[in-house]
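ok trying again, last paste got cut off:
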Amino acid sequence: MKTNVPLSEYPRMIMVRDSYLSLNGLWEYAIRANDETVPTKFDGDIMVPFSPETPLSGVKRHVSPTDVLFYRKRFRLPKGFQKQFVLLHFGAVDQITTVYLNGHKLGVNESGFHPFSFEISQALQEDNELVLVVRDYSDTKYFSRGKQKIKRGQIWYTPQSGIFMPVWLESMPQDYIESLKITPRYDESLVEITLNTNTTEKEALIIFDGQEYKVKPNNVYKLKVKDFISWSPDNPHLYPFVAKYGDDEVSSYFAMRKISVAPDENGIKRIHLNNKVLFNTGLLDQGYYHEGYLTPPDDATLVNEIKVAKEMGFNVLRKHIKIEWERFYYHCDRLGILVWQDFVNGGEPYNFVTVHVPAVLNIHFKDTNYKRFARQNARGRELFYDEAKRTIKHLYNYPSIVLWTIFNEGWGQFDSHKLLPFVLELDNTRLIDVNSGWHDMGLGEFRSHHVYFRKYHFKKDKQNRCVILSEFGGYAHLIPNHYFGVADFGYKKFDTKEALEKAVVKLYENEIIPAVKKGLAAAIYTQLSDVEDELNGVLTYDRKVVKIDPKVMRALNEKLIKA
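nice, full thing came through this time. structure:
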């Protein structure tokens, strides 16, 4: 059913419960200079979940690092909604958030991109008042901020603050399922499922393919999947199942797929999907939108851009320096596209020589030098570990995600030799790109290149790692009436769509496709859409114009995959 409440679709399709209440819609907001005292009078209404800086919020006001942003929402629970416990979910609030319900402090969240929740049953009343106190330091401190920058421009984007992902409630009985952990074991023809529950007194059930399986809560259950159908971009087959614990019930799904790096018949390291070589050809996906910034305007926009990418023959989206609304990953699962998921970068303001000069000079620095990499603050480094763990736990069950990128182009990079084993301990079922672009520390399975200002020439890695081109291209074309930035930025610029298309064909046919036989295993073109100054998308910023003929792009990708 269509509603006037934005992004009100059920957000967590990997674990669906029949209890759901969206708190998106009109809230009250206030902005005050450096005063965290909750005001008695608010400034007006804001459309949640859009940040106050965005057009879709209805506010269009900037929140500076010295400001405090307040939210207030009054609500009543529908009759019969509360069973026993009630969870209040925030998809993401940028950057540091203190939450109060009916004057009771629920807690503080220090992360601008990760979901968090509170159990609120004891604080609920008939009439409820929810208040948020938010500070956003953007790129002036050490907190993670992605590509937001107060002095925006070129590859750095307009900063935003506050709630930018859905807010919602669900209710559970006395005994309930807290979370699921789902791990396909492709070579063993089984899937491991763990039902994490708040108590352990009861027996749990998994219902799959018409059969009931008794399972012990908080323990791994190995569910055999005979004669299974493999999940792939060409055939994104999902297996639904239901988990029950006492009176609680959730529905979910899994996919049988395996991602790995292994030598091909010629001894060259390649990416394998389901034990078969698959050249990963993709688009860099910033996840920025012209009216919502980090927030998609609606669910349909996410679906459409995935379909455009697939129509063009791409099989990967590299979600760049952002954690997306959960429905994005669900759509990738069901529509069939691989996801390379970046961690969100942080650190103090970056050193120009460290993060930009290597694009031209191809120099590398040791990332144990905290000052050079803007990582002198110990609390900031600690938060990055915590957020890496939160990212993996949050997204672990989505089968489309096949790779984690820890660091990109030296942005807040540090101690790669410690981060790699840390991430592997959390998830050894996916691939890891430790240092994407430059400042390669010689670690992991990949030598990961970014090439923009020169021709791409394949070079075998001295350590015999798998070679990937994790960013390239960036060819720009400005389309009038679909241009929302204040500058015209791109690594190469073209005056017409015809010239752009011809250049892209030449790039792939002369530089990328010939490199495959030599050992190139993946190529990620920059990018899916224009973003503010960057006019190098295959889609315009408003997603209304496709700049490159999908048939032409598909033909190139077919050659690439078959090379």
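cool. The chain has three domains: 21-172, 177-246, 259-562. The domain at 21-172 is CATH 2.60.120.260 (Jelly Rolls).
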